[in-house]
């Protein structure tokens, strides 16, 4: 059987990922009718429908789901082959996508250490709160935050992450804290990001009626942590993200580890076919080493 035109396969992948002909058309720089035409040609070549309509969107048929899995690996292989052909033979390129807070607060301060240990790997990092698709073969791994509910990928959860009240040493000198209930009279910083929020934390440690107001509220962890480091209040945040600030003495835990709640918040996600790539396995081993040193 003849291989369908690559432009039809790429159009199919884009529509399958975005679940929209219009969004795929914007992504590919084509008209919606041109994308629809490519999908029709592909379905004619295969001899079976790949999508059916559900409301205003498109849903893959069972044949379409299987075809997407098959072409995903092929497109990834083509991407890697092109990258190898166009790169220096002595340099590997590791493409990492990350949530902004992890990229800025955990990964960026450690880039020099990675470069020193792995000078033959060029690290390309992109940050956003979008969950990237691996179908194009562009990204090797994605660092995601949240509950690990993703399908068809390998998930490596970063260990020893805790949510705890954190503050600048100078703030605690001015405003001593001896118990969780004391914090109700303090300046609290709210972040929308952590898997454990203030109300849950207070309830966990016996403060059932939280009536505290928030002096600051942010939708990014790096903003709440920086605000706490400036001495403007107490943040309930990830010890993993704050590890560099804690090592520098800019932040300290308000209480001991018995008042910290362990979470599985950050995860390295990758497609199964990437697990055996040397650059990926070396990066994962390096991450483990860094976490052990923390």
From TrEMBL:
Residues 4-61 form the HTH lysR-type domain. Gene3D superfamilies: Periplasmic binding protein-like II, Winged helix-like DNA-binding domain superfamily/Winged helix DNA-binding domain. One of its GO terms (molecular function) is sequence-specific DNA binding. SUPFAM superfamilies: Periplasmic binding protein-like II, Winged helix' DNA-binding domain. It comes from the Bacteria. The keyword Transcription regulation applies. The keyword Transcription regulation applies. Keywords: DNA-binding, Transcription, Transcription regulation. InterPro entries: LysR-type_TF_proteobact-type (IPR058163), LysR_HTH_N (IPR000847), LysR_subst-bd (IPR005119), WH-like_DNA-bd_sf (IPR036388), WH_DNA-bd_sf (IPR036390). CDD domains: PBP2_GcdR_TrpI_HvrB_AmpR_like. GO terms for biological process: DNA-templated transcription. It holds the Pfam family HTH_1. Belongs to the LysR transcriptional regulatory family. This is Gcv operon activator. It comes from Ralstonia mannitolilytica. The lineage of its organism: Bacteria, Pseudomonadati, Pseudomonadota, Betaproteobacteria, Burkholderiales.
